[in-house]
């Protein structure tokens, strides 16, 4: 009797296994584990705060070791960012009352510059690990974490609150526990935006690597072995050749991380895409194909797979994923009143302490001065956005509408977005010193080097998503070029452009910390602005002015987001989203 199968078996869909793939995967995993263990053993070395070195060796032979230390910090910060993202975003999405506090707090946290966190945390981490360099290492990892976590948290939160209602109903009907719903519904549905925003956040971490490894706070300077501190030392010594060497090593690191980590991850996340049709140009990865041809991932799955059911049972104590659809109105109002009273009391007390501290130290005249400097930085941000929009929107549309160009250009754009532009600052500063040009206008260019790529990256994504039938209809109607831009392209890319512009503006504010005060050798160039104000206050340990600078920058960023960007984003969702 012949049995006809309507669908192929699972084994028929698997790629053919290869012993060569097994060998390559095993050797690669072994080398990776050995490198992580070897590097980790060099972290816990003795540390004396009074005699700690302020520079590192600029011997080129040390670069592989420095690069590996920096890479380990970046991935440690990424792991912390993922844990924070899962916990914070889930609490904000699932708990109605805490959402009212967590979302504004996240808005403020992403506006605080990295030096603001460093000035507070360095001494605490050093005291937490006395006599060991682990404390300084933890401070550097935390600083990189603050440049990665907020964007990822916002992305995962938006994926949770925009889940289809059918997924919520299925979770209830299947009586999934909160643990099961998180790993089987929430994480898979938010995986694609999480990975893409994680990739962009990882690039943001590269940008602040110099500030995280060559720490200058409270009239003290510390240097951790890393490629960021290598660049800082070479810049202070006016060693242009060493800076070029570090840039070459950095390019190799960025390309390697994209090839071995982000590109396989992006290709793998396509399995979580829910669409009626398959993408015409699905991402591909040699590394992912190699893993799929190896037996090792399957063996690991058979080893750890039996632990899933016991873990589910152990985590069932968190309860079922059933959120009340209807609650007592009086009970809800009473709870809201109590919660609001507690939050307002905490805010009032904190505000009183801040006002009292500023009044008794720097005075409110300093606050007005900081707001004036903030206007100069705001002007640079506006100029940056206008120029970046005029330059990169046409280029991004051209790349996004041409699949062949997009396939070759997107990896280049990803590398450019990930490359820390402040590694180029020493070369740019050397040109400014030689020419005698002012940093007051050149600071905008330095800020643009790190922020402009967000606009290009998002415009490419928006243009590539324009439906083919609309493009064909416009071609058949022979629309004039101006009408084609106004009626088809600009409305289609507007949501993506707004997302890129918001990210670029936030990146520009943070980049002002390192762009408005630059050094080359014994020459220091300073541009008037809020970024240089915060950096100078941080270096000398002026706590009142650090607090004022951080508060003023947070006020600018949050205020502009609320008054302008959020309204523009709402307009994009209301009128131009598909």
Structure, explained:
This protein is mainly alpha-helical. Helix content is 74%, strand content 3%. It is built from 25 helices and 4 strands. It has helices at residues 10-13, 19-40, 63-94, 96-109, 114-128, 134-146, 149-161, 165-173, 178-189, 191-207, 209-213, 227-236, 240-268, 286-293, 296-304, 308-314, 329-360, 364-400, 403-418, 425-435, 439-464, 468-476, 481-515, 530-540, 543-576, and strands at 214-217, 220-223, 517-520, 523-526. The strands form 2 sheets. A two-stranded antiparallel sheet has the order 1-2. A hairpin with a 2-residue loop joins strand 3 (517-520) and strand 4 (523-526). Helix 3 packs across helix 13 (240-268), helix 7 runs antiparallel to helix 10 (191-207) and helix 23 (481-515) runs antiparallel to helix 25 (543-576). It is globular and about 65 Å long. The N and C termini lie far apart (52 Å). 35% of the residues are buried. Mean pLDDT is 82; it is low at 1-13.
Protein topology:
Blueprint: H1 10-13, H2 19-40, H3 63-94, H4 96-109, H5 114-128, H6 134-146, H7 149-161, H8 165-173, H9 178-189, H10 191-207, H11 209-213, E1 214-217, E2 220-223, H12 227-236, H13 240-268, H14 286-293, H15 296-304, H16 308-314, H17 329-360, H18 364-400, H19 403-418, H20 425-435, H21 439-464, H22 468-476, H23 481-515, E3 517-520, E4 523-526, H24 530-540, H25 543-576
Antiparallel strand pairs: 1-2, 3-4
Short description:
By secondary structure, the chain is mainly α.
């Amino acid at each position: 009797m012949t049995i006809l199968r309507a669908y192929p078996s699972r084994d028929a869909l698997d790629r053919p296994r290869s012993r060569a793939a097994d060998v390559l995967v095993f050797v690669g995993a072994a080398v990776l584990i050995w490198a992580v263990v070897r590097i980790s053993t060099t972290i816990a070395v003795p540390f004396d705060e009074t005699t700690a070195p302020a520079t590192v060796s600029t011997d080129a032979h040390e670069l592989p070791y420095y690069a590996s230390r920096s890479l380990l910090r970046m991935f440690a910060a990424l792991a912390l960012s993922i844990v924070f993202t899962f916990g914070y975003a889930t609490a904000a999405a699932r708990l109605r009352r805490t959402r009212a506090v967590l979302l504004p707090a996240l808005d403020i946290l992403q506006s605080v510059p990295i030096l603001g966190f460093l000035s507070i945390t360095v001494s605490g981490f050093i005291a937490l690990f006395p006599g060991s360099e682990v404390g300084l290492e933890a401070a550097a990892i935390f600083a990189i974490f603050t440049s990665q976590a907020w964007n990822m948290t916002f992305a995962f939160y938006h994926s949770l609150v925009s889940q289809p209602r059918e997924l919520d109903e299925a979770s209830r009907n299947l009586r999934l526990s909160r643990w099961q719903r998180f790993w089987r519904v929430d994480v898979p549905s938010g995986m694609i935006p999480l990975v893409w925003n994680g990739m962009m956040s990882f690039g943001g971490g590269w940008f602040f690597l110099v500030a995280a490894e060559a720490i200058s706070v409270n009239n003290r300077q510390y240097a951790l072995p890393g490629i960021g501190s290598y660049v800082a030392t070479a810049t202070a010594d006016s060693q242009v050749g060493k800076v070029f060497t570090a840039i070459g090593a950095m390019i190799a690191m960025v390309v390697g991380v994209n090839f071995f980590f982000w590109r396989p991850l992006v290709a793998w996340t396509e399995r979580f895409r829910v669409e009626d049709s398959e993408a015409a140009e699905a991402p591909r990865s040699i590394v992912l194909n190699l893993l799929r041809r190896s037996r090792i991932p399957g063996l690991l799955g058979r080893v750890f797979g039996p632990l899933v059911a016991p873990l589910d049972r152990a985590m069932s104590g968190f309860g079922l994923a059933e959120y009340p659809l209807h609650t007592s109105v009086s009970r809800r109002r009473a709870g809201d009143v109590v919660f609001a009273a507690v939050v307002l009391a905490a805010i009032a007390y904190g505000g009183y302490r801040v006002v009292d501290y500023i009044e008794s130290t720097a005075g409110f005249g300093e606050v007005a001065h900081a707001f004036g400097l903030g206007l100069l930085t705001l002007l640079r941000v506006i100029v940056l956005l206008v120029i970046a929009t005029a330059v990169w929107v046409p280029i991004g549309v051209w790349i996004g509408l041409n699949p062949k160009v997009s396939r070759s250009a997107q990896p280049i754009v990803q590398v450019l977005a990930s490359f820390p532009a402040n590694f180029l600052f020493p070369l740019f500063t050397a040109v400014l010193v030689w020419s005698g040009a002012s940093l007051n206008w050149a600071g905008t260019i330095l800020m643009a080097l790190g922020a402009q790529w967000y606009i290009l990256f998002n415009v490419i994504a928006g243009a590539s998503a324009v439906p083919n039938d609309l493009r064909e209809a416009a071609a058949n109607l022979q629309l004039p070029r101006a009408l084609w831009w106004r009626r088809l392209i600009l409305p289609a890319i507007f949501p993506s452009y707004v997302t890129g512009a918001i990210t670029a503006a936030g990146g520009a504010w943070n980049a002002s910390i390192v762009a408005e005060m630059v050094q080359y050798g014994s020459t220091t160039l300073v541009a008037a602005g809020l970024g240089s104000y915060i950096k100078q206050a941080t270096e000398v340990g002026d706590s009142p002015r650090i607090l004022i600078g951080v508060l003023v920058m947070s006020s600018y960023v949050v205020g502009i987001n609320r008054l302008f960007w959020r309204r523009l984003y709402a307009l994009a969702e209301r009128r131009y989203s598909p």
